[in-house]
Amino acid sequence: MKQIIVTGSRGQIGTELVTELCSRYGPEKVIATDLGTHTDFKCEFVELDVTDRTSVFNIFSRVSPGTVFHLAGVLSARGEEQPETAFNVNLNGTKNVLDAAISSGTERFIFPSTIAVFGPHTPKKNVAVDTITRPVTMYGITKLFCEQLAEYYSRKGMIDARGIRLPGIISHRTPPGGGTTDYAIDMIRSAVARRKYTCFLKKDTRLPMMYMPDAVNALVKISEVGSSSLLHRTDFNVSAFDFTPGELETELLRHFPGFEVTYRQDARQAIADSWPASVDSSCAEHEWGFAPQFDMQRMVSDMILNLRPLVKEGRSAQT
Ligand code: SER
User: Fold this and answer.
1) Whole-angstrom distance, CA of residue 58 vs CA of residue 76
2) Are residues 184 and 231 in the same domain?
3) Residue of 139, 183, 197, 211 marked active site
4) C-alpha 75 to ligand 1 mean position (Å)
5) Residue range 102-127: average pLDDT?
6) Are residues 63 and 96 in the same domain?
7) At 37, is the pLDDT very low, low, confident or very high (cuts 50, 70, 90)?
8) Is 25 among the catalytic positions?
9) How far is the CA of 114 from the centre of ligand 1 (A)?
10) Regarding predicted confidence, which is higher, 309 or 63?
């Protein structure tokens, strides 16, 4: 088996995906890359800025990987604050990684797209894969372009690209940075730390979500499945459940009676309002066996279990 390169490995999903890949295939098979230097990965780590085309080409020609998981990206809220950076990282960075992967003979390009490819003209509920995609955020625009670019290269037979449109991903290990769905993690962390929480979205804003173990499983699963079953390529909707901040508050109150949430929306409300409330994951279920294990209640219980020790140690959790 050839080696696997992971970009954005120090991010919310990257840290957990690298751990899973190391235990599944062995640390010698995984090369984690990202900005910065410090990691506690068992595998080799290489400092890499995906916008630096020469460095991207250097590592791909040295490693000649079989698969790349391209996770480096700027999320929605940060992308609206820094649209140039989002454009550069999400678009130019992805083009660099795709080109380097193709030129080094990499077989598979796996990447997370997002529910942000949808926009205000998309139907709100149980949104199909093949529907109106007219995003209004820089994050959504760049990710939609990357879906289509990767699919184009796939159709031409240059690389086997696969992508999943992730919803809000909830996790306890590495805080996300600059997303709109991050409120859910912040609210759970606040409840466990017995702090009040001020939510930046309205109480009734429904968004699709998924727990990290299911996101990691989905990425691994789509990277391993044979091509013959795939009718779609880079645009699979995947989601495990959907809820509103009010519903999450109610669930947390079952565990922490007295937990207080106030609602004060900010600019992120407009981003959330442009996204679907729920998506239809049936293409992913039928074509490659997407089958999330965690519902909202199990997710909340597991988050609490994992966050409690951190709170006791005083590492409670500013995100
Ligand atoms: N979690 C992402 C964000 O909020 C959505 O894909 O930006």
Assistant:
1) 30
2) no
3) 139
4) 6
5) 98
6) yes
7) confident
8) no
9) 7
10) 63
